[in-house]
Write a structure and sequence with these properties.
single chain, about 475 residues, 11-stranded antiparallel sheet, about 30% helix
Length: about 475
């Protein structure tokens, strides 16, 4: 039985598995092991005779392809594990002096591992394994009791004696938060580093029951935004009610080149009214459930993707990324509320068609070259589009948010880098401040649209004051 405190690597490494389908690897394979490297990638190391061969076709350098290569493992009980997205990157030959034989060692990156041990039972618990779970003043406790009992029987069959000793340790601390999301109960836990060697800030989400992958992904995305930290997905394990592993999925982590580990933990809205880094269950549950409730309407998965890549972008281009995230949020809000924000200057289709025909007639009667006439006709459609600034102003009025002068200027300058505009000497501080202001604008808009909070942290002002969503951020310069 594998406890809840670690990923189940030993089930494969010590589970009497053998390679039944080597995929692109050199075979026959004598032994193998799986581990995570410092980048949290899954690494498969295989050992084979020196004359082992690979049947994989040679792929030219620079080929763009979807890697569907897979390796299959089977153990003596018939349990099957599939390693997919196999990418070999290292092959070495060495001499094993003790056995007097040459060995070929191959290392490959593995995208994902899937295994089903007992598919006949309904999972009672599901654990998502995470890294980059931030430090907070958590609302709920974790108590750990570890005990070892040693029994020694002397002359057991001849009126002997029995000696018994026990030793143990206890651990207690506030490292968890209980969640209730769309009728599903879960526990977000921050673990000690010693419980997960090689990981920076290990943690997990324990679900009661077996919610599907998509639901759990949504919860991770919502929690990441609420906590101000990108929760790195390492995989999941399904357990029976007796905590026996039923199935598992492990995957190489995506952490934007490990840059998410370097981001400061700056959650958009207060999670506790007394401590900036405290968590009140009511506050956390409100944000998570509010985002989940609007997830499809706002396409929050893609919004979150744009947001975290903006945070990890270099300062000179980050404004472009934040601007794209804000425009995506704006577009999705307008799509969901088409009557609230005007997107066409002439909304009546019949009137616009008549106007368009009149313009086309003027173009046709002009003495311009046909190439110029064609170019003008292609541009006529854009005449009826409401300007981006006007749409933004209308949306902000509708949701009850006013941009301050610094925020408005940052919004105006968001695409400077995309247009190749050079930054003036000494403008570095203004550039960094613009990025902070754009981040706060995104926070305010999303929190208001989802009704996730009534307050926000103004990260553009020193001291990070707490403000009402309707109140603009102030410049820190």
């Amino acid at each position: 039985m594998i406890g809840w405190e670690r990923e189940p690597f030993e089930l494969i490494n010590e589970g009497l598995f053998r390679v039944t389908s080597p995929g692109p690897l050199h075979a026959p394979i004598d032994s193998f092991s799986i581990r995570r490297n410092e980048k949290l990638d899954l690494i498969l190391e295989t050992r084979a005779p020196a004359d082992a061969q690979s049947s994989a076709p040679e792929i030219p350098s620079g080929t763009v392809r979807l890697n569907t290569d897979a390796v299959e493992l089977t153990n003596i009980a018939g349990i099957r594990a599939v390693l997919s997205g196999i990418q070999p990157y290292s092959v070495n030959k060495s001499h094993h002096y003790e056995k007097n034989q040459h060995v070929l060692t191959e290392e490959s990156r593995v995208h994902r591992i899937d295994a089903v041990i007992d598919g006949g039972k309904t999972p009672a618990y599901t654990i998502d394994w995470l890294d980059n779970v931030p430090h907070f003043h958590w609302p709920d406790t974790i108590r750990t009791d570890v005990s070892t009992i040693t029994t020694r029987r002397i002359a057991e069959n001849n009126d002997g004696i029995t000696l018994t000793s026990s030793e143990g340790r206890e651990g207690f601390g506030r490292h968890a938060a209980k969640l209730a999301v769309a009728g599903t109960n879960a526990f977000l836990c921050a673990l000690d580093r010693e419980e997960a060697a090689g990981r920076l800030r290990p943690g997990c989400i324990i679900y009661l029951g077996s919610p599907d992958d998509e639901f759990r992904k949504r919860v991770r995305n919502a929690l990441s935004f609420a906590l101000g930290a990108f929760l790195v997905d390492l995989g999941s394990v399904a357990y029976t009610d007796e905590w026996e592993v039923q199935s598992f999925r492990l995957n190489s982590a995506y952490s934007i080149g490990r840059r998410v580990f370097d981001l400061p933990v700056l959650h958009p809205a207060p999670l506790h009214m007394n401590w900036q880094h405290g968590i009140d269950r009511l506050f956390l549950n409100r944000i998570v459930n509010s985002i989940i409730g609007k997830y499809d309407e706002l396409d929050f998965g893609n919004l979150a993707w744009a947001y975290w890549h903006a945070l990890c972008a270099t300062p000179h281009i980050a404004g472009v990324h934040f601007g794209a995230a804000i425009e995506a949020l704006q577009r999705r809000y307008i799509t969901a509320n088409p009557t609230k924000v005007q997107t066409k200057i002439i909304a009546d289709r019949a009137i616009w068609t008549k106007f368009n025909d009149e313009i086309d007639g003027v173009i046709a009667q002009s003495k311009l070259p046909e190439e110029s006439k064609s170019a003008l006709r292609q541009n006529v459609g854009s005449l009826n589009k409401v300007h981006q600034k006007a749409k933004m102003d209308a949306l902000l009025r509708d949701i009850g948010i006013v941009l301050g002068p610094e925020e408005a200027l940052a919004w105006k300058r968001r695409n400077d880098a995309a247009h190749g505009n050079e930054m003036e000497a000494g403008g570095e501080l203004s550039l960094i401040q613009d990025n902070r202001l754009l981040k706060v604008v995104f926070h305010r808009m999303l929190l208001r649209i989802t009704n996730a909070s009534d307050l926000y942290f103004d990260y553009a002002t020193p001291g990070f004051p707490m403000r009402r969503l309707a109140d603009p951020a102030s410049s820190g310069i």
